[in-house]
Amino acid sequence: MPDTARKILKEVFGYNEFKPLQAEIIQNILEKNDTLVIMPTGGGKSLCYQIPALIFDGLTVVISPLISLMKDQVEQLAALNAPAVFLNSTLSQEAYSRNVNRVRSGQAKLLYVAPETLFTTRTQALLAMLQVDCLTIDEAHCISEWGHDFRPEYRKLVDVRKKFPNAVCVALTATATPQVQEDIKQNLGFKDAGHFLASFNRENLFIRVVPKINPVDQAIEFLREFPEKSGIIYCFSRRQVENLAETLASSGFSVRPYHAGLPDIERKQNQELFIRDNIQIIVATVAFGMGINKPNVRFVLHYDLPKNIEGYYQEIGRAGRDGLRAECMLLFGYGDISKIRFIISQKEEQEQRLATKLLNAILRYAETDACRRKNFLTYFGETYEKANCGMCDNCLSLNRQQTDITVPAQMFLSCVKRTGERFGANHIIDVLRGSKSQRVLNFRHSQLSTYGIGKDYTKKQWFHLSRQFLQKGLLKQDPEFGGLLLSDKAAGVLRDGEKVSGKIEEDLGKIQVSKAELKDYDVELFQVLKKKRKHLADQADVPPYVIFSDRSLIEMASCFPQSNASLLQIHGVGQAKLDKYGKGFLSSISGYCHRKGIKENMPKPAVARSVQNPAAATPRSTQAAELLNQGRSLQEIMKIMNVQEPTVIDYLGRYVLNGNTISAEMKQMLLKQSKLPENIQRKAFDAFVRLGTERLKPVFLDLTETASYDELKILRLVFLSENRPEETKKNPGT
What is the pTM of this model? Predict the structure, then answer.
């Protein structure tokens, strides 16, 4: 790896180390070897060709089907003083001519174009005059007829290659099965291509599938877990997008719709509002998100079933691109399957076979009770060795004991039989639970012997049970209409009393998940820096993440850099950004630290920092706990650390939630700090047992507002120090 590449990595992009495979890929490209890169969304694909582009003497042409990607990439490169332009139909004639002149004069090192633009006579004439050192094909899976997003125009790219025999060709994609990978190489004429396959595993994404019962209520409940956080909701149809966006807006959420049927101006405006953090949520069809490099998307909700695993993987890949934890939830209802099958039925016969194969793969993923991460990694040809990923709903429920579910199985199978083996799970459950819905009454199913016999189980529990019956082969599903049918195995359970073992979930919609790791950073300073970033972004007319990512701000709020040299140690701060924004951010940090009496807390340069622990120096939560365990009172700690009492309690809370303990004497001292009577304290502890400790609002409401939030923080700290956090953090109500 040439020193030039490492120098560009730090000075231009502000990164200290390459991500896995980046160095090897860049080396291969610089040696002019054709290169196929399969790397997950957020894995750093762009850097693999951008650094060589800044080293090559000639031009790098980046072919992308995504206009939004071109604009996004060029804006980010401009913030780094890296010369790049794009040519597409959105530019005015004046802007188009200006960009052409920059390319012709050699001022631009990267040119982003859509395939349609590349094939025009004037673009071909422009490139024929220039030294083209690299042809980069992004979203390369579009070239394969076996892929989920085949685009015939991509097949013409091999002809473009022939016109630039001295240019190295780089093909990149985030989603390609082994078959698609081979198809890409064959179609592009790669002979001895370097083939770089990064892991598809996005360890920072928590993934779960929840039965779709009351989707609007489920969506609202999910969104309330992420106040003031950015997220995307994917829907099947334009109408669904409009209806859900309107419902959420009326419920007080900051939300806009996005789909291809909106007027261009409105669609583009909504996208800009989202990427600039002016709104928090986008409700969209799958048309949204391609090429958007917004790193701080904290959640993705699939309101409807995706058509295939490739699309699903790309869409959840919009979340957590900054490496911090993000959550992905899929609402799975069998009614969605018939919608997709109808669309498939309108295709040509060969396309139908491929689309059906892809649909079956996503159904296996949604219905599995094994590790979901392992399921889709296997789909992409990757072996996942861990027995428990710890970051999906199924793995978190693996330690739950199996029990005898023979009786509910007999109830369910009997009801399927008595209703004629033509209805889906939702209707069967309504009958079992004695619903008075019009549909149940119209079919006279209220007169069946199975009507109302399943009231002991909630609707969510029945949905979870029905999935298990399908997985165990007791039921089959009608491939056309989605109705449930009894299998041959069902007779053994109904007639012979064969035992069925499985799990009964307490509440599948609220699976206990470990929330994002608590970062030891100053939350108040982080908010100050976010406002600073937003102000600068609005002035420059760019998205906030173009200035600095959340990860960079978290490190600043953890390490408190107060000099140029210190700021350069922060992730994502290179010389270009230091020159542009360093003075303003240092002023904000220094002013804040002066007011609070906080000193710089930079790690030693030789110590690598990670996302999970940006500051290698002693975290302030640990400092507070050490002082407490030394016998210092809260007032003394406040004075030493120059913070208020609620901040000290917050620090101690983080310390305990991270698995640490404090002494019994200190627990008693903290308890004495509470001004609440003992009976209210006992009620609070009982509420923590029932409602969990992650959020205080449910406990606050449960106590009918008789205890303040500050009091509850103290009691929560005492409670957590006496109970293992993983045993007490039940997902709270809203």
Answer: 0.64
